[in-house]
Amino acid sequence: MEKYRSTADPSTGVHPFLPPRGASAGRLLVGAVLLAPLRLLLAAVGAAVWVAAAVVVAIPLGWVSSALARPAVRAGHAVGGRALLAAAGVRRLPRGTPAPPPPRGGPTRPTSAAAAAAAAGPCGGDLLIASHGSILDVAALAALYSPLFTAPTPDGTRVVVRTAPGAAADVLWAGPTGVPTDSLPPGHGGGENLSAVCARGRAAGAPVVVWAEGTTSNGRGVLAFLLDVAAAVPADVAVYAVGFGYADARSPVSAAYTVGNPAAHLFSLLTSPSTPFRVTVTRLPRGAARDAAAVHRAVATAARLPPLRVGVDARRRFGAHWAATVGGGTPRAVPAAAAIAATAATTTAAGRGGGGRDGSAGLTAAAAAEAARPRKRR
Fold first, then answer.
1. How far is residue 165 CA from its own chain's centroid?
2. Distance, CA of 125 to CA of 240 (rounded, Å)
């Protein structure tokens, strides 16, 4: 772990990007024989239902009216999403939607209207600020709410809509890295204001999900947000904190994915007898988005994980270091030696306490030299 210390969270010591543990070869072999054929069939059926209802049927209806298309979209996402979760070993979809905590100086209990809204869950145009660590996150939220999925632009003030209205299939097919926004160039597509996206979701009857971290982690903490919550989140929308959990000491498989072979990761899910997975949705008090740190803590509380200070910058450095030392398994394998050398130079100049904008330290010069050194072929 020492060689990855530079991308660990400085306050907790958590390594949020190291690949989670995997199943043993014996378990994979047994699962491949007994579970994989049925799971593959279930995944194929789920994907077919998803595409048929949420795309093939919904798009022509959407030309007439989004209200006509919405039932087909929701049906496709509900059935297809749950089938895909079952194919990955998720036996049920546990979730919680606690009522919002009372505001300071306000009543000790939420009003009946607030309680009813919390019990009803997110509605069209509401905003779900979510953590992200697995492709199963997309399937779960699609099955529950059939939302629009968005990701923050690199400056954190705008978002890129990663799905056409009423269809989340392109996010699902993006791979286990989910929404790799750290690869987007500045100003990609111009982005959109969240207020405009929420207004579009309100018209379509769909909530809006934003992957606030801007990348994925291994499920051991909630990364620092790439999304500038105070600047980007509209003041007039209901906001929910969404957290996912993948940890279970009894299971050898984690649904979280950071680096490694994505096909092998998906295969481990298909052959797992049971994959731990939890989603918790909490409605935040009105005006909570003005306090970005409080929103970050709320998402971490929903995920039952510590809030971390490292984020996309550390993820980039970790990916470059992993590609240089381990090789492959990470999307966007940019010239790793150059990236590491630049980081090392920054670290040398900043000293031991220096680091990136997310609060983490840079890679050491020794690590850069080791990563850039050519390796002999065996």
1. 19
2. 11
Backbone conformation region of residue 11, classed left if phi is above 0, alpha if psi is from -120 to 50, else beta = alpha
CB distance 157 to 196 below 8 Å: no
Measured between alpha carbons, how far is residue 173 from residues 7, 69, 189 in Å? 28, 22, 20
What is this structure's pTM? 0.76
Tokens 């392109």 -> residue: 170
Q: What contacts 184, CB < 8 A, 6 or more positions away?
A: 151, 153, 154, 160
d(CA 259, CA 268): 14
Cα gap 16→164, rounded to integer Å: 31
pLDDT digits 0-9 by tens, 175-207: 333 444 444 445 445 688 999 999 999 988 899
DSSP string computed for 286-352? TTGGG-HHHHHHHHHHHHTS-B-S--HHHHHHHHHHHHHHT-S-SSS---HHHHHHHHHHHHHHH-T
Q: Name the strand (E) or helix (H) holding 137.
A: helix 135-145
Q: What are phi and psi of 44, to 5 degrees?
A: -65, -40
- Report phi then psi at 351, rounded to 5: 85, -175
